[in-house]
Amino acid sequence: MSDVLVVGGGPAGMAAALAAHRHGARVVLLEAGDDVGGQFWRHRGTGADEGVWHHGWDRFLALRSGLTRVEVVTNAHVWKLDRRDDAPPVVHVLVGEPDGQGRESRTYAPETLILATGAFERTLPFPGWDLPGVYTAGAAQALAKGERVAVGARVLVAGAGPFLLPVVSSLLRIGAGVAGVVEAAGPAQLARGWAARPWRLLAARHKTAELAGYVRELATHRVPYRTGAAVVAAHGTDRVEAVTVARLSADWAPVPGTERRIAADAVCVSHGFVPRTELAVAAGCVTGPDGSVTVDDRQRTSVPGVLTAGELTGIGGADLALAEGEIAGTVAAGGVPGPAAVRQRAVFREFAARMAAAHGIRPGWQAWLDDSTVVCRCEDVTAGALRHAVAVTGSRGLRSLKLTTRAGLGLCQGRTCGRTVEDLVPGLLDPGRTDRRPIALPLRLGELATSNREDVP
Question: How many domains, in total, are found in the chain?
Answer without folding.
Answer: 3
